[in-house]
């Protein structure tokens, strides 16, 4: 962070604003700390003087509505909106990195690394499309990264809501990532332009450069509308096939999000939390199961917009707020305050997210002690000590949790020592969600009786 962007901390409601972190279209983005919970947030300032025009007001109002609606681990979360005499301020989930800067720093990525980012982007976009929201300005600058390199899609200001049969005509987005139909100024259904932009992002991650590029905008537009680009021979077959289908000039022939979810490139090493859930039981099965096993009452409370309430967070929050009891907090959480919510709800969400992030980081394996522990575990379970134990980063969402890390051993070494008993091993290819390193070992070696 550039030191020139630092300034003496200032108070704004329940927040301490510490520094500028970016310059937005309508104002600055600043970092702040929630004083009660200590959780870091981003504050997006929108100047009221700049948004006097009706079109601009509509864009800001739309962004608020969409951000309030979207709740996904790979989409930036809106906590609350603050109004001052000069600004409207969106209090957002903080993510300090950008995919753009990551690409500039590291250059082209391995397929494994690019796939992980791509899976998270596509899953977030598929979710927004299910809610009839199209982003329309996907580019690496709008794909933020948190401290654990998890994707957080941001800036839904150009988004538009779609309905079945509706077509959009507004030309928007960034030229290098814009679909041919957008450049031509024609009509388009919406989701297919997010597919195109995601395809350009995938190309950039794998190749380290843009598929369509020229200093002359007219020449650039011509290249995009013709759809001519070069795919390096070093790319794998699945990557080449998917990029080709995503960058099809004809939107009717372009691959859909649903087809992307079924494509081998996307499905390879897909984390469990991104995998589709099995369909619910049919009405007959459901009715029979309820007769055999009556539905048990829940021992926890679910509140709309907050999900399952974590009682330890409520207790912790009560201890941090002077003169506020747990009963007071429960009352505030249950109260319907409209779209804005109340200060206690915001504090609860911030503290819950901070706790989850801290919990995940405490569970990361660290150093040789863990390695020895894994080796000892394997010696006890399969009768052999691996020559090499290595760590691989995996990312999982448990609720709205973030980064978890797992460990595995080289499959070939275990197979050589296990011999014919290998058939009893169930191998789980990373990334695989788990909580602690012992869990992944137990999962990798389930059915591990080697005697």
Automatic annotation (TrEMBL):
Its EC number is 2.7.11.1. Residues 15-266 form the Protein kinase domain. GO terms for cellular component: cytoplasm. Belongs to the protein kinase superfamily. CAMK Ser/Thr protein kinase family. SNF1 subfamily. It catalyses: L-threonyl-[protein] + ATP = O-phospho-L-threonyl-[protein] + ADP + H(+); L-seryl-[protein] + ATP = O-phospho-L-seryl-[protein] + ADP + H(+). Pfam families: Pkinase (PF00069), UBA_2 (PF08587). GO terms for molecular function: ATP binding; protein serine/threonine kinase activity. Keywords: ATP-binding, Cytoplasm, Kinase, Nucleotide-binding, Serine/threonine-protein kinase, Transferase. Its main location: cytoplasm. InterPro entries: Kinase-like_dom_sf, Prot_kinase_dom, Ser/Thr_kinase_AS, SNF1_UBA. This is non-specific serine/threonine protein kinase. GO terms for biological process: intracellular signal transduction. PROSITE patterns: PROTEIN_KINASE_DOM (PS50011), PROTEIN_KINASE_ST (PS00108). The keyword Ion transport does not apply. It is found in: Cytoplasm. The keyword Isomerase does not apply.
